[in-house]
Design a protein that fits this description.
The complex is a heterodimer of chains A (297) and B (314). Chain A has 297 residues and is mainly alpha-helical. Chain A is built from 14 helices and no strands. The longest helix of chain B has 16 residues, at 166-181. The chains are: A mainly alpha (297), B alpha/beta (314).
C-alpha cells in the first residue's frame, strides 16, 4: 500500500457568500449583453421605454399645474386624471417593451447552455439547479424591473412631490407596493415562459418563436372560446387579459373608478390565480429540464 | 478513517436502460484508472461520483457527504466531463475566472488561480484567445484546467486524452501522475487501456455497467487462476532454452518464436518458475536478453475478464 503525502495546497481563504454566488451568472450575462453587438437594439428599447415614461411624467406635470393651464384657457378636460388607473396605464407601453426585452434577453439564457452542453459546467460547482435558474432569471428581471418597477415608482414619487400636500400620498400610500408586486408578476411570468421555452430547445431563435407562438396561440384560443360559448369568462384563457386584470386589482382600481374593470367578467384574484398557475407550470418544466440527466437514445 | 470517495452498491438506470449496477468501491489517494469499452458505464459512474446524476440505488459519499445534498462538497471536486461544453465567444481566462467565482473565489483570487491553471495546462501563452479558436487538444486542456483550477482534492477526468496529440497526451499523463503522487484522488477514465497501463496499476474495470475488477492490476491478474501466466524470454538460443524449460514441472506450455529469437511459455506458478529460471541462468550461464510478462497488463486482464467479448464501438 503506497503512502501518499499531501503535497498540494488547498485554498484557505474565505469563500464569497453562498447566497450571492449565483449573481456571477447574472453579472456574466449582463456583461455579455452590454459588451456584444446585441447592445444596440437593447439600448434602443430602453430608450423607447424611457420616452414612454417621459410622456407620463409630462402628463403628471401638466395635471399638477392644471390651474395654470385653465388660467391660460387651455382645455384640460380631455387629459387623463392622475389616479390609480393612470399608473396601471403606464404598464401598457411597458408591457410591449417587456415582451421584446424578454425575447431579446431571455431566449438564449438556457438554450445556449443546452446547445453548448454547458449545464454540467455549472452544476459541477457549489451551485444548485435552483441557483442556476435564479442567476438566469435575474438577468431578465434586471431589465424588466428597470422598465417597470423602478421608473413607475419614481413617477409615483414625482406625483407625490408635484401634487402639493399629502392628500395623494395618504390616499395611495400602498401604491408603490402594488406597482412593485405587479412588476414582479410581469417579470415572473415573462421569465417563466421564456426560460421554459429556452430550456426546451437548443436554439435561442427557436425559443423566441415558441414564445411568440404561445402568445398568439392562447389569445386566438381565448377569442374563439369566448365567441363559441358566448361566455366572457372564457377570456380568462388569455394571459394578456389576465395580466391586465390582475394589474388593475393589485393597484387597487375598483369597478366604480374604471370602465376597464367593469368590462371584465372575472375578478382580479381569479386573473392573478391563472397567472400564478401558469408561472408554476412553467417553472416546474424549467426545473425538470435543467436536471443534468443524460438522454439515452 | 473513511477514504475520500465511497461507493456503496451504486446503480443507475435510465428508464429501462442500465447505466451501472451494484458498484461498491472505496477510492483513496492516487491515480485510479476507470477502464472499459464504450458504453460500459464509465461516464455514468463519474457523473454519479461528481453528484451530477442521482443514483437509482445505493450511496455515494465524497468526504463523508452526499454531493447531491451538500453542494459545498463540490469545492473539493474537480470534474472534467466528456462533452465539449464551452462558450466559444469567451476567452480562456474569462471562462476560468467566471467558473472560479462560481466556486466562491473573490475576483482577484479567481484571476490568479485561472492564470495558474492555464500555466499548468500549457495554455498560458494565449489567455486572451477566444475558445472558439481553440484546437480540439486545446479545448481538452482547457477542460482539465477548469477541473483543477480550484485545487480540488478529488479530480474526476472523463476521457481527458481524447483528441490530444501525442505530445499533449504525454504531458497530460505526466500531470495526472503528479496529481496522484501529490495525494489527490484522481479517477481517469479511458477505453484505450494501454494509456492507463503506463499511468497506474490501480484500476476499476467496467463492462455492461458492472464492476469486473478493482484494485492493483497485478493482484487482479494473480486472482485469475484459470488463465496461465505468460512469460516471454528472448535469448540467443531459444531452442536450447525451451528444451530446458520443458523439463520443469511448473511450465504448462512452451512456444518457440524463431523470428524474434524468443520463447513464450505459460505457467500456473509464476513465482516458483521465476526462482528456477534465476537458478538456471546462474548455474548454467544461460544468456537472457529480455524477459517480460505479456499478459500482466490491463488489456490482457480485461480480455480474460470479458472472455474477449468487448463491445468496442457500441
Amino acid at each position: 500500500m503506497p503512502v501518499y503525502a499531501q503535497h498540494y495546497r488547498l485554498w484557505a481563504g474565505r469563500p464569497t457568500a453562498r447566497w450571492l454566488r449565483w449573481t456571477v451568472i447574472t453579472r456574466y450575462h449582463l456583461r455579455q449583453l452590454f459588451g456584444g453587438k446585441g447592445r444596440y437594439p437593447l439600448i434602443v428599447l430602453l430608450n423607447l421605454s424611457a420616452a414612454a415614461h417621459l410622456v407620463f411624467l409630462a402628463l403628471i406635470y401638466v395635471m399638477a399645474n392644471s390651474d395654470l393651464l385653465a388660467f391660460w384657457g387651455i382645455p384640460i378636460k380631455h387629459l387623463p386624471r392622475v389616479n390609480r388607473e393612470f399608473f396601471v396605464n403606464m404598464f401598457i407601453p411597458q408591457g410591449f417593451i417587456c415582451g421584446l426585452l424578454t425575447l431579446m434577453v431571455g431566449s438564449g439564457l438556457i438554450a445556449d447552455d443546452r446547445r453548448d452542453n454547458a449545464i454540467p459546467l455549472y452544476l459541477s460547482k457549489p451551485l444548485t439547479p435552483i441557483e442556476y435558474v435564479l442567476g438566469k432569471f435575474a438577468t431578465l428581471a434586471f431589465f424588466l424591473l428597470a422598465v417597470t418597477a423602478v421608473p413607475i415608482n419614481l413617477l409615483f414619487l414625482c406625483e407625490v412631490l408635484m401634487h402639493g400636500g399629502w392628500a395623494f400620498l395618504k390616499a395611495n400610500w400602498w401604491l408603490p407596493l402594488g406597482i412593485t408586486a405587479y412588476s414582479m408578476t410581469i417579470a415572473l411570468l415573462c421569465g417563466a415562459v421564456i426560460l421554459m421555452a429556452s430550456s426546451l430547445v437548443k436554439k435561442a431563435a427557436l425559443a423566441g418563436v415558441l414564445v411568440i407562438g404561445l402568445f398568439v396561440g392562447h389569445n386566438i384560443l381565448a377569442g374563439v372560446l369566448g365567441e363559441m360559448f358566448r361566455n366572457k369568462r372564457l377570456m380568462m384563457a388569455s394571459l394578456q387579459f389576465d395580466l391586465f386584470r390582475a394589474g388593475l386589482w393589485l393597484l387597487g382600481v375598483s369597478p366604480n373608478d374604471s370602465r376597464a374593470v367593469r368590462n371584465f367578467a372575472f375578478s382580479g384574484p381569479e386573473a392573478l390565480a391563472v397567472v400564478l398557475a401558469v408561472i408554476a407550470v412553467c417553472w416546474t418544466i424549467v426545473w425538470w429540464r435543467v436536471r443534468p440527466v443524460e438522454v439515452v437514445k | 478513517m473513511n477514504p475520500p470517495v465511497v461507493l456503496d452498491d451504486v446503480a443507475k438506470w435510465y428508464g429501462e436502460v442500465l447505466g451501472i449496477n451494484g458498484i461498491s468501491a472505496r477510492l483513496g489517494p492516487g491515480v485510479i484508472g476507470l477502464l472499459g469499452p464504450n458504453g460500459a458505464g464509465k461516464s455514468t459512474l463519474l457523473k454519479v461520483m461528481a453528484g451530477l446524476l442521482h443514483p437509482s440505488r445505493g450511496r455515494v459519499e465524497v468526504f463523508g457527504s452526499d454531493p447531491r445534498r451538500d453542494v459545498e462538497v463540490y469545492r473539493r471536486i474537480g470534474f472534467c466531463h466528456d462533452g465539449d461544453g464551452f462558450y466559444d465567444v469567451l476567452r480562456g481566462l474569462d471562462f476560468l475566472r467566471s467558473s472560479l467565482q462560481l466556486h466562491g473565489f473573490a475576483p482577484r483570487q479567481a484571476r490568479q488561480l485561472a492564470l495558474e491553471a492555464l500555466e499548468t495546462m500549457g495554455l498560458a501563452d494565449e489567455p486572451k484567445k477566444r475558445i472558439g479558436a481553440y484546437s480540439k487538444g486545446m479545448r481538452q486542456r482547457l477542460k482539465m484546467a477548469h477541473a483543477i483550477a480550484h485545487n480540488p482534492d478529488v479530480i474526476l477526468l472523463d476521457e481527458p486524452l481524447a483528441g490530444m496529440d501525442p505530445v499533449g497526451r504525454h504531458r497530460t499523463l505526466e500531470l495526472v501522475r503528479q496529481w496522484g503522487e501529490g495525494g489527490r484522488v484522481v479517477v481517469i477514465s479511458s477505453h484505450i487501456l494501454h494509456e492507463i497501463d503506463t499511468l497506474t496499476t490501480n484500476i476499476m474495470m467496467l463492462s455492461h455497467g458492472r464492476l469486473l475488477a478493482e484494485g492493483d492490476i497485478h493482484e487482479v491478474r494473480d486472482l485469475l487462476s484459470e488463465h496461465p501466466h505468460q512469460i516471454y524470454i528472448e535469448c540467443p538460443n531459444p531452442r536450447a532454452l525451451s528444451s530446458r524449460l520443458i523439463e520443469m514441472e511448473q511450465v504448462h506450455q512452451v512456444h518457440i518464436e524463431r523470428e524474434r529469437r524468443g520463447v513464450l511459455l505459460e505457467t500456473f506458478q509464476p513465482d516458483a518458475l521465476y526462482q528456477q529460471l534465476a537458478d538456471i541462468v546462474v548455474k548454467e550461464g544461460m544468456n537472457i536478453e529480455l524477459m517480460t510478462s505479456p499478459d500482466d497488463n490491463v488489456q490482457a486482464v480485461f480480455d480474460y475478464l470479458t472472455h474477449g467479448r468487448t463491445e468496442e464501438g457500441d
